[in-house]
Amino acid sequence: MILAIRRGSSLRRVAKRFGVSPMTVRRWVCRARGQRLERLDLCDRPAGCRCPPHRTSRRLERTILAIRRRLDRDSPLGDCGARAIAAELQRLRAASIPCVRTIGRILARNGVLDGRRRVRRPPPPKGWYLPEVASGRAEIDSFDTITDLVIQGGQDVTVLNAMSLHGGLPGSWPQAKITAKIVVERLLEHWREHGAPTYAKFDNDTIFQGAHQWPDSFGRVIRLCLQLGVTPVFAPPREPGFQAEVEAYNGRWESRVWRRFHHRDLPALQRRSQAFVRAAIEQAATRIAAAPARRAMLAGFVPDLQRPLQGTVIFLRRADPQGRVECLGHRWLADRNWVHRLVRVEVDLTAGQVRLFALRRREPAAQPLLKTMNYQVPKHGFMDT
Q: In b/e form, how buried is each residue of 79-101, taking b as 16+ CB within 10 angstroms?
């Protein structure tokens, strides 16, 4: 381009020939003015000034760094951050005082910050605490309740909600009161219509797990799951995240059903809830179809609560300072070096064993077996109170 211009061609003709704008041709011609082509620096440079006019001068940067060193060494409080440096510049009545954020960038650019940035690690896969669920080979349904709802007039309402992890299959059942018997009825209703998953996850409420005052207590919900071939899983107490999918659905149900409409009575609320669930299932139809397969229930199935216990129950627990985990009224030693960490407790009622696995969010695929112990399976029948 420069050679063509020097031979007498016009800017527009050269720009059209090389497929660039006339301004581009003019910029290169100006850069080459008074220089021989073989000595010309043809490396591209960003547009604008080499040094921005609003850039902090090197002299002021050196002053800021000197003040920081002096404050770090001599300040009674030991404060040597951006705010303390800005206050010191004001005390010294400096001619130019940058803002606190600019001082912070100067400190970061020169590598003199004391704080460490938080390391952001990628989250573990969904259902990482169960290898089959994490790999997408098995589905898990989560169940939770919404309590302390009151319809105008004083009628109490409790809602049992369900949400599957991979498929996003919802379920909601508003009731005047939720008991273990009602939970069993709703589970049967839900799984007859959509099929049973491989796992079912609950919190540690007595309506799901059973009585807490006696050891080795397996409630009617656990017994129903075991008879259907569904492995019940219980989330660790006071641990966020393990019931995230159903808790998110709880908030969605409250905003789209409970707070959106005025409900005259419980039947009106139930109709609204059923319409919402049907629409949510239709909206998630593609995701539900792509989820792991669910097993169809046998026609005419009736749970037998007195049947001997067989199958596996899983408890997710966090070890105490001694490396012990507590569940089913027992305190089992997992590992004295595995303190304050997550453990998956698998109670194998068929083999009469308890297996303890180590869990780490940072390494979700590594779940080593910590210990295997014998377990005395309770032989007494279910006590219906």
A: ebbbebbbebbeeeeeeebbeee
Using alpha carbons only, give the angle 129, 339, 242 rounded to the nearest 5 degrees: 30
Q: Tokens in use for 100?
A: 């606190």
This prediction has a pTM of 0.73
Q: State residue 135 phi and psi, 5-degree precision.
A: -80, -5
Mean pLDDT of 312-327: 95
Tokens representing 216? Answer: 């080795």
Are residue 28 and residue 64 in the same domain, yes or no?
no
Determine the 3-state secondary structure of 21 from DSSP: coil
pLDDT (mean) for 109-135: 87
Residue 385 has pLDDT above 60, yes or no: no
The string of DSSP letters for 337-376 reads: T-TT-EEEEEEETTTTEEEEEEE-SSSTT---EEEEEE--
Is 9 domain-assigned? yes
Are residues 32 and 66 part of one domain? no
CA distance 80 to 88: 10
What is the spatial distance between Cα 354 and Cα 345, in angstroms, rounded to a whole number? 7
- The dihedral sign for the CA sequence 194, 200, 203, 204: positive
Residues 361/128, Cβ–Cβ less than 8 Å = yes
CB 209 within 8 A of CB 183: no
Domain count, the chain: 2
Bigger pLDDT: 115 vs 366: 366
pLDDT of 183? 96
**Could you give the CA distance from residue 344 to residue 347 in angstroms, rounded to a whole number?**
10
Residue 309's CB is within 10 A of a number of other CB atoms, namely: 18
Within 10 angstroms of residue 354's Cβ, the number of other Cβ atoms is: 20
**What Å distances lie between residue 287 and 50, 131, 256, 280, 297, CA to CA?**
53, 21, 21, 11, 22
State the residue for tokens 């319809």.
151
Q: Which residue has the tokens 């029948």?
A: 381
* Contact in structure between 363 and 375 (CB atoms under 8 Å): no
| Tokens linked to 95 | 């001619």
Task: Provide the residue range defining the domain that includes 13.
Answer: 2-39
∠ Cα 352 313 309 (to 5°): 55
Residue 215 lies in a domain: no
Would residue 8 count as lying in a domain? yes
Range 344-372 average pLDDT: 95
